[in-house]
């Protein structure tokens, strides 16, 4: 009608709607469809507050929640030579790498760190599914070897969070050779008498499952994680029949004896502390042994105690 | 003689020579020998030309050739007193994996390998060389026994991959493969592996983590089949030629990468053209490799084997 209805009102509306519902603040749960506010989701370690579906979590975020006070230091991983096969499919491998580095802000698909959980010193390694499907190439192999060597040197247990589609095809046979390489890493830990706990997260498949992920002293999986050697699609094509409900999911593997436990992500930290301290012959962890932050220190350093409190009192 | 697709022109010439000779047998006055010999010569030249520089995809086809000698043929020709040992003591005996005690040049060894089968019935019985967890667990048991009695282990690798089946997954295919690789790295006796056909992914690594790894000239060893790789990365399983190229799965590339130690020459036109000779050359290479490892102490073997794999891949293709 006039410039107010035609121009000004849509402008105002769009301003408001943009301010109210910026897209990146909300995540839709892929399982139940609930819209989850980013803050709430992040506080719950990327587990849907409505249906308990476990969404992917980056290694860095996981470590912030895992280690006491969110404090950890990264273990340096020896750099492998890049693009050893000069691999090119529809894209060049270095280009795929650059794209993955840009979208994740990480250098590669595994992060290794040392720190304390419940005042228990550990080394931890976590695979990043968002980085080229967490695929295992030379770098991931080097990371696991570095983690094992560091654990042996410091006489600490290793906790490894696996998440990968399998081997990194762009490194061809060298990705396959990470199966024996990482197995040697696990042997180093066993010979040093150090616990090796694997936390299998969604998805852990292929050569990763058929090497370090299945060689732990204790296997814990996150609920409903897909864990397998051959994926369900490949199997359906081979045997030409529908697979049963829940096939190759964590609970199914637990029933078939491949796992020790299936544990909710927010309870994982506490469980790891409990198991590790028993394996290491240490006294039980003192629950809530961190002094409550008094308002003064909280005012000075709001970040750290808040995180520590969030991490030590997991929600159920 | 089974011809591969790229051998079609060769099939024509060899077929003609055969026809001529058949004709001559029926009709004694005909003298075709001269022409037949000329055709033979032409065929040989063509064969030499075809196999001079086989593309990776063609090598895959040769490696999967139905009449290529399989594990069973090697065991029959190279070993004496072969005594198959069966079962994983848990669930079943996997016929995709052959294993047992045998003598090589009179000396006792433990031999383990994938067997694909040679006709429809045996292929089904052997599950086309695709092992289930029981196969790997049988191998673990045999490697363990070899270790306790100080017998060297010889493995023959020829598998499209571990079997992707429902039961196999339920019984822990990945765990079985992981443990088998682990066992390879733990035994204090020499472990010599030869890829005689297809080295398919984890199913191959589980037996091939050895002190010495050799490959037949036209065998392949890869993290994934070219078809599988093509359908994932190219979203088109028809791009297997490109995928085979990119994956560097030939014995020649793997030698350059330092993944294998030796390439064993095949008779002209591939192992299937002169099975006996191919098997014999594998036999002498196995003897050579075992000779290199003779007299080494268990701890020394284990240390060197681990180092070999830890160092692997550090140099890339330039190595």
From TrEMBL, chain A:
Gene Ontology CC terms, in alphabetical order: acetate CoA-transferase complex
Cofactor note (record): Binds 1 zinc ion per subunit.
Chain segments carrying region Disordered: 287-316
One Pfam entry name: Zn_ribbon_ACC
The enzyme's E.C. designation: 2.1.3.15
ZnF segments: C4-type: 29-51
BP GO terms, sorted: fatty acid biosynthetic process; malonyl-CoA biosynthetic process
Catalytic activity reported: N(6)-carboxybiotinyl-L-lysyl-[protein] + acetyl-CoA = N(6)-biotinyl-L-lysyl-[protein] + malonyl-CoA
Pathway(s) the chain acts in: Lipid metabolism; malonyl-CoA biosynthesis; malonyl-CoA from acetyl-CoA: step 1/1
GO MF entry, a single one: ATP binding
Domain CoA carboxyltransferase N-terminal intervals: 25-294
Chain sites annotated for binding Zn(2+): 29, 32, 48, 51
Annotated keywords: ATP-binding, Cytoplasm, Fatty acid biosynthesis, Fatty acid metabolism, Lipid biosynthesis, Lipid metabolism, Metal-binding, Nucleotide-binding, Transferase, Zinc, Zinc-finger
Top-level taxon of origin: Bacteria
Biased composition (Low complexity): 304-316
Needed cofactors: Zn(2+)
UniProt feature, compositional bias: Basic and acidic residues: 291-303
Compartments where located: Cytoplasm
Alphabetized InterPro entries for the sequence: AcCoA_carboxyl_beta, Acetyl_CoA_COase_Trfase_b_su, ClpP/crotonase-like_dom_sf, COA_CT_N, Znf-ACC
EC class name: transferase
Family: Belongs to the AccD/PCCB family.
Quaternary structure, from the entry: Acetyl-CoA carboxylase is a heterohexamer composed of biotin carboxyl carrier protein (AccB), biotin carboxylase (AccC) and two subunits each of ACCase subunit alpha (AccA) and ACCase subunit beta (AccD).
NCBIfam families: accD (TIGR00515)
Protein name in UniProt: Acetyl-coenzyme A carboxylase carboxyl transferase subunit beta
Species, as recorded: Thioclava atlantica
TrEMBL record, chain B:
Organism superkingdom: Bacteria
Pathway this chain belongs to: Lipid metabolism; malonyl-CoA biosynthesis; malonyl-CoA from acetyl-CoA: step 1/1
Membrane-spanning parts: none
EC number: 2.1.3.15
DNA-binding found in the keyword field: no
Encoding gene, per UniProt annotation: accA
Localization of this protein: Cytoplasm
Subunit structure comment from the entry: Acetyl-CoA carboxylase is a heterohexamer composed of biotin carboxyl carrier protein (AccB), biotin carboxylase (AccC) and two subunits each of ACCase subunit alpha (AccA) and ACCase subunit beta (AccD).
Swiss-Prot/TrEMBL catalytic activity: N(6)-carboxybiotinyl-L-lysyl-[protein] + acetyl-CoA = N(6)-biotinyl-L-lysyl-[protein] + malonyl-CoA
Annotated Pfam families: ACCA (PF03255)
Coiled-coil residue spans: none
Keyword DNA damage tagged: no
Boundaries of every CoA carboxyltransferase C-terminal domain copy: 38-292
Keywords: ATP-binding, Cytoplasm, Fatty acid biosynthesis, Fatty acid metabolism, Ligase, Lipid biosynthesis, Lipid metabolism, Nucleotide-binding, Transferase
Family annotation (NCBIfam families): accA (TIGR00513), AccA_sub (NF041504), PRK05724.1 (NF004344)
Protein name in UniProt: Acetyl-coenzyme A carboxylase carboxyl transferase subunit alpha
PANTHER family named among the record's database cross-references: ACETYL-COENZYME A CARBOXYLASE CARBOXYL TRANSFERASE SUBUNIT ALPHA, ACETYL-COENZYME A CARBOXYLASE CARBOXYL TRANSFERASE SUBUNIT ALPHA, CHLOROPLASTIC
GO molecular function: acetyl-CoA carboxylase activity; ATP binding; carboxyl- or carbamoyltransferase activity
Function, as annotated: Component of the acetyl coenzyme A carboxylase (ACC) complex. First, biotin carboxylase catalyzes the carboxylation of biotin on its carrier protein (BCCP) and then the CO(2) group is transferred by the carboxyltransferase to acetyl-CoA to form malonyl-CoA.
Organism: Thioclava atlantica
InterPro entries in the record: Acetyl_CoA_COase_a_su, ClpP/crotonase-like_dom_sf, COA_CT_C
An annotated GO cellular component: acetyl-CoA carboxylase complex
GO biological process: fatty acid biosynthetic process; malonyl-CoA biosynthetic process
Family assignment from sequence similarity: Belongs to the AccA family.
